[in-house]
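As promised in the previous annual report, we have extended the structural survey to additional targets. Below is the entry for Clp protease N-terminal domain-containing protein.
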Amino acid sequence: MFERFTKDARAVVKGAFALAEGEGVRTVGAEHLLLALLDREGSRASFALAALGLAERREAVRGALRETRRRAGLTRAEADALAGLGIDVAEVVARVEEVHGVGAMSEDVGDLKDLTGRGGRRAGRRPVFGREAKGVLERSLRVALGRRERHIGDEHLLLALTGAPGVVGEVLADHGVTFEGVSRVCPPVHPARSAGS
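The corresponding structure token record, generated without further manual editing, is:
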């Protein structure tokens, strides 16, 4: 599938891996793809994000993603469902962090300790795509095919993220970035012209 990616889409994937490695996590998540998209300039997705007003709210998006990571990646709907069962997610997070430190419920935290108890990645272990990130990549192919485009650009990754179930889709929607909005500001490219992107 990666042979169908444009240079911009490949740069997003590489950026997502770099972000995951920098955090010391073992899986590249959908949030890493979104953050890598936010770091891009001069691409179709960066144009769409700027047109939708998200480019100047990067830090707000980063903050929203950090908050959801603190609560173990639960969406508001999931937290509300647990509240319906009498489980206060904020209270659970507070108690866990009181004992184990801030961010203790974040994904991969337990995998970061080496034998000395310090955080960090074991030599030779690179992050791999997590389930959500794989789903985004697969959806980006379906989006490109649905738009009758031959190559997968970073705009297809953004479109796939807007429809992603879970935190990333929720954060994008909260900031006014929807599939329809991205489609409007980033219409399909004629298939013959998309090859050099």
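Confidence is low (pLDDT under 50) at residues 108-123, 192-196. The radius of gyration is 18 Å. These points will be discussed at the next consortium meeting with the crystallography subgroup.
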